[in-house]
């Protein structure tokens, strides 16, 4: 606890600068227009609170990828047809940006992005090393990818930012249905209980792989955070592994990668709470608030 108390003030300022860059979006994606056009869910949703914290998004994003890639067909589709190996930092940013578009962008902009993603998925197909055919637009695989991302972002926010009640958790899952449908994802979990049921049904298909160990090593070394903050990146990756449901972590044989010390966990919680109170006026969340006529800091807790 003492380490967290003294380290957090030293780390929070540089992390806020990094977070502002990571959350700024990319050219061509404007969250501030068209003026007045709503997103798929509103600013008082649980999703708008959860998706604005850069630390929990980073941790949850890694957790989600590990869960997704535990399924062999998803693993082959991602590993063989994406830039994860060559440029994991850019791939993570693109994944996070897609989540931001789904939650914060005006509906018309989100529909265009979803159409591009559906077209890209329609072109991806292959066979796993075990001989199973796969298609990226397979409804079963799309459901697993969407559900694991929803679970992971919420779980990271709960553990490292602030509490989310059971009823709010169910609301959060239900809020994802409209966006999932536009991506072509059917019958997504609409509550935490439904996600738990999907996890139980999918666990027998999960399998360990050297690719998961390689991915963890890549994420620890990739230039996602500046060199001075790279030790914290190692802690964040371990936190992401630790956040996996125990049944999945054991099934994937990843427990050895995810042991946090008590001071490390306390530090991440302190940083998550600090970043939750920070302003990121160029972030998708802030721009979306302005688009709807709200203050840029509308989502910052008082």
SSE blueprint and pairings:
Elements: H1 2-22, H2 46-50, H3 54-70, H4 72-81, H5 88-104, H6 107-122, E1 125-127, E2 133-135, H7 139-160, H8 166-175, H9 177-182, H10 192-202, H11 210-221, H12 230-243, H13 246-251, H14 262-276, H15 284-291
Antiparallel strand pairs: 1-2
Helix pairs in contact: 1-14, 3-7, 3-12, 7-10, 11-12
Q: Can you walk me through this structure?
A:
- 63% of the residues lie in helices and 2% in strands.
- It is an all-alpha fold and 302 residues long.
- Strands 1-2 form a two-stranded antiparallel ribbon.
Structure at a glance:
This protein is an all-alpha fold and 302 residues long.
Mean pLDDT: 89
Distance between the termini: 24 Å
Q: What composes the largest sheet?
A: 2 strands, antiparallel
Fraction in beta strands: under 5%
Number of domains: 1
**SSE-based structural type:** mainly alpha
Which bin fits the share of residues in helices? Answer: 55-70%
Principal-axes geometry comes out as globular
Question: Which segments are poorly predicted (pLDDT under 50) over 5 or more consecutive residues?
Answer: 1-8
Strand order of the largest sheet: 1-2
Number of helices: 15
Radius of gyration, Cα only, in angstroms? 18 Å
Order of helices and strands: HHHHHHEEHHHHHHHHH
């Amino acid at each position: 606890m003492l380490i967290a108390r003294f380290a957090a003030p030293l780390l929070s300022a540089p992390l806020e600068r990094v977070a502002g860059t990571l959350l700024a979006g990319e050219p061509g994606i404007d969250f501030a227009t068209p003026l007045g056009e709503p997103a798929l869910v509103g600013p008082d949703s649980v999703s708008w609170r959860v998706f604005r914290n850069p630390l929990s998004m980073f941790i949850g994003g890694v957790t989600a990828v590990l869960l997704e890639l535990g399924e062999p067909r998803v693993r082959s589709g991602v590993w063989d047809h994406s830039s994860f190996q060559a440029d994991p930092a850019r791939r993570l940013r693109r994944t996070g940006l897609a989540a931001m578009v789904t939650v914060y962008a005006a509906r018309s902009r989100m529909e265009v992005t979803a159409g591009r993603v559906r077209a890209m998925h329609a072109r991806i197909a292959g066979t796993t090393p075990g001989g199973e055919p796969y298609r990226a637009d397979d409804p079963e695989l799309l459901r697993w990818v969407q559900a694991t991302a929803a679970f992971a972002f919420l779980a990271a926010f709960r553990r490292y930012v602030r509490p989310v009640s059971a009823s709010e958790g169910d609301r959060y899952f239900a809020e994802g249905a409209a966006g999932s449908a536009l991506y072509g994802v059917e019958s997504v979990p609409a509550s935490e209980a439904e996600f738990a049921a999907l996890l139980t049904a999918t666990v027998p298909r999960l399998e360990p792989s050297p690719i998961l160990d390689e991915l963890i090593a890549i994420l620890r070394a990739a230039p996602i955070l500046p060199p001075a903050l790279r030790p914290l990146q190692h802690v964040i990756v371990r936190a992401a592994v630790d956040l996996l449901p125990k049944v999945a972590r054991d099934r994937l044989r990843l427990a050895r990668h995810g042991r946090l010390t008590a001071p490390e966990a306390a530090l991440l919680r302190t940083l998550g709470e600090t970043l939750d109170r920070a302003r990121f006026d160029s972030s998708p969340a802030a721009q979306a608030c302005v688009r709807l006529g709200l203050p840029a800091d509308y989502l910052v807790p008082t």
